[in-house]
Design goal:
There is one protein chain. The protein has 7 helices and 13 strands. The chain is an alpha+beta fold. It has 2 domains: 122 residues, Dam replacing family, catalytic PD-(D/E)XK domain (PvuII Endonuclease, Chain A), CATH 3.40.210; 71 residues, Winged helix-like DNA-binding domain superfamily/Winged helix DNA-binding domain (Arc Repressor Mutant, subunit A), CATH 1.10.10. Strands 1-2-3-5-6-9-10 form a 7-stranded mixed beta sheet. A 3-stranded antiparallel beta sheet has the order 4-8-7. A 3-stranded antiparallel beta sheet has the order 11-13-12. α4 crosses α7. The longest helix has 16 residues. Bound molecules: zinc ion. Zinc ion binds next to loops.
Length: 256
Amino acid sequence: MNLKLDPAIGCRYTNTSQIVRVMTEHWCANNLSCPVCGHHKISQNQNNTPAVDFNCRECKSNYQLKSRKLWNNSTITDAGYEAMIKSIKGNSRPHLLIMGYTTDSYVNNLMLIPYFFFSETCIQKRKPLSPNAKRANWVGCNIKLDLIAPEGKIMIVENGNEIPHSKIIQQYSRITGIAEFSLESRGWLLDVFHLTSQYGNREFTLREMYSHEAYLAALHPDNKHIKDKIRQQLQYLRDQNLIEFLGRGVYKRRIE
Ligand SMILES: [Zn+2]
């Protein structure tokens, strides 16, 4: 993997965002293997599918690329709020690749967020544009990366270092069971999974998890049995080998 973006690729364009887009897309098409199946490359999408920049000819996974000069671990600005929520509810999101590049055009960070780690919880509605704006009253959104469990943020390049491909594939494969959950139950699972991540690799108790009852009740106002739901998600996470039950209401995340 050559981490340098090729400036010659963008020279036909004058608009900065277009230059960045062609340079970063060119880089991905020439350097990235498919993080899902390991196929040696991902190809630029030839169809006009909205929000899909690449696909893997082998496993048919779709990818969207977003690039930023300033790397931000907590938030990334995205396009329309309604379109985002619709794609989550329609289970039609591509995997998201987020690239951070340096001022001298090196790929410094590249993160994969599998499509099944998106839920309404991590999408923040932005303020509508002013009535005088070109797109009056349009509402964009932010993706709150800090509300996504670390297992759903797979680094491909981290601080200028390439992560071994075998590690990427292994990290992806240990979370694929989450994609099998229905959309509604996946929302709960992701929320509880994210909450367990604040305990890092220390043990935590059911009582500690219950302390998030009000937060979860606000996210799921129709559910009146929050504690039951928490216990159920912990069982699902154990079944997925993502946490361990140590007995007597004590749990631990499995960190690999
Ligand atoms: Zn693939």
